[in-house]
Amino acid sequence: xxxxxxxxxxxxxxxxxxxxxxxxxxxxxxxxxxxxxxxxxxxxxxxxxxxxxxxxxxxxxxxxxxxxxxxxxxxxxxxxxxxxxxxxxxxxxxxxxxxxxxxxxxxxxxxxxxxxxxxxxxxxxxxxxxxxxxxxxxxxxxxxxxxxxxxxxxxxxxxxxxxxxxxxxxxxxxxxxxxxxxxxxxxxxxxxxxxxxxxxxxxxxxxxxxxxxxxxxxxxxxxxxxxxxxxxxxxxxxxxxxxxxxxxxxxx
Length: 252
Known about the structure:
The chain folds into 2 domains: 7-37 and 137-252, no CATH class; 50-132, no CATH class. The chain contains 10 helices and no strands. It has helices spanning 8-26, 41-49, 51-72, 81-105, 111-130, 138-156, 161-170, 181-211, 214-223, 225-244. Keywords: Membrane, Transmembrane, Transmembrane helix. Pfam families: DUF3159. The chain crosses the membrane at residues 60-79, 85-105, 112-130, 136-157, 189-210, 216-240.
């Protein structure tokens, strides 16, 4: 076969697999060496959330922003709105940088700290430019809506990204689930479950953003986002395990 004469579906799958790899990266998934020895559901959930430490590290910059904005603002110390906002921005950025430095000193992975700092920096810049504390959360809201849109599109074109993610993380990179009707349908509706989950998380936050409830938005982001994520991941792991225990996909 000469270069450029590959079947069109092969080129399409390569693009979809690259997109699925980005989903795996975003959700912090990884390929399991032996698909017959998958971690338990609780172990998988704990790994995705990073345990108690992961929850604390991911929530600390947002919590710092909320606390400083409330304590320094009219509610307590009575500083003007912009001054309180600038101190809150500085506190959140410093805490995010501190987490990354702490991990570097301990020679621990810093990818998540860098990603978190990047997101915090964008939100901080928007809040600084507009003078509105609520805009600190806007990039995260838009990103979540974007993820939901991509997943929905993958269902519409019948290339569910949750299936590709499963192939990468638990099936040694094989995407042979297309030939298994039950698995294909499972991945289709599970991808829709993720669409609903992401849309719910982003929708609640967007509603509070539209109302200008910046402090409530920060609290909701901390207290609601992670439980919804954990529940969705747990349900996904359970549903896939339920199907794969009764059916074994043959290697490609």
